[in-house]
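cron nightly-structures :: item 1 of 1
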Amino acid sequence: MDTVKVLIIDDDILGRRVFCNVLQRIEAVEVRVLCESEDPHAILSNEEFDIVLLGVNSNRNPENLDLGTIKRSYPGLRVVSMDERTKKGAVSIIHAIEQGAVDFITKPAKHNSLLLANSHFEKRLKPIIENVRRMKPDTNKIHSIIRPNIKLSRQRARMVVIGSSSEGIRTLATIFKKLPGNVAAPILVVQHFPKIFTRVLAERFDEISELQITEAYDGAQLEPATAWIVPGGMHAEVVREDAGYSVRLHRGPRENEMRPSIDVTFRSVARLFREHALGVILDGYGLDGFAGVQSIKEFGGQILLQQPDHLFTKQLAEKIFEAGLADQVCTKEYLSWEIMKRTRLSHPKEKGFSAAGSHTAILEDNTTILSPK
């Protein structure tokens, strides 16, 4: 078994101790803790680490410990961001992922609760460490494959569901920036994120998108040109009502150790929308999302897959591709284009739809859509 070398950079002495103890209980892990008197650049330059656990609020030497600086100086270094499970922590972790962090770990808001969070930290750290072991420069299975000659389905997608994990946040930002405000289908996003964090994420996306983006609530009406982020800690299913379709939230048992579960949401959409369902998978460690993708395909729907070459959390996408369940594999820049092609566009919404700087294309049914900017 390959040894994984981990560097812990955190101002919190108790936090450093807890993370170090948890990591030392994982087989074949070598842990190095950065002390107050040490220069992180000297350590990173002289020693090779597989991954760095970085406390977001580490600020002894801001110019040395800033994630952006570390990523610029050591672009191949994988960084996991750590912060409290609060609104402020959510903002900083989302920012860290946007800067290039591959994953995140939340800490209890109450400092003295750190000693009681060993099982939570172990649950988060074990898959991260195992993923590091699996990743080697020559083990990309998909490389730059994009399936040729994919014929666009004549069945317009009337519902879009997206499954996403940590790194998917960057892709979602790209998708929502590029999608125009008149997409003729609602979008429901299952993001593996804690509660509080999903609300902050929805607010962040709403600021950058022409779509109306909100954290989902029980009974939310699904309408075209809107996007909903499933709240952390809740499962979401789409249900039919007299007025159309809405979101039903519940705290059912975890599936694949997840709540929200991608499978739960995808299955409900597959049953209701059948060939008019469009599922999109961005990233993920484990199996959550695989059975949901199978359901959408069994009912005649379509699946888009993010090209996972450079992702850290790419196991789910690889499994879906290997099973032949993807209708299209494409880069994050082109996912919005593929979503537009399959959902079509309606009349412009009031939030600020603009076609400036875009090109148009005509589909087989004479629907005009916009190509990527």
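cron nightly-structures :: done
Residues 118-134 form the longest helix (17 residues).
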